[in-house]
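FORM 12-B: Structure-to-Sequence Request
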């Protein structure tokens, strides 16, 4: 998928969704948050483009979480399903 700039077609939508998700889980107050989230948006079925990313967490914490999640995915049996 590469490391191209965040695609403009997703920027405004992702910022709006990030604000909504953050308020939904953490309320309207700014500052210390109890719940973190990551939103990844990418073109399905394509290998061109970028996985666009936005989060309310610190990048270092997100990297650790993603590595742990990937290890769980890799250690799990293949399942088919839909979220």
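FORM 12-B RESPONSE
SEQUENCE OUT:
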């Amino acid at each position: 998928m590469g490391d191209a700039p965040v695609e403009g077609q997703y920027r405004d939508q992702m910022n709006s969704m990030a604000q909504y998700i953050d308020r939904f889980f953490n309320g309207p107050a700014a500052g210390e948050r109890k719940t973190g989230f990551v939103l990844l948006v990418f073109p399905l079925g394509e290998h061109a483009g970028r996985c666009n990313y936005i989060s309310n967490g610190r990048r270092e914490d997100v990297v650790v979480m993603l590595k742990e999640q990937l290890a769980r995915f890799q250690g799990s049996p293949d399942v088919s399903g839909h979220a």
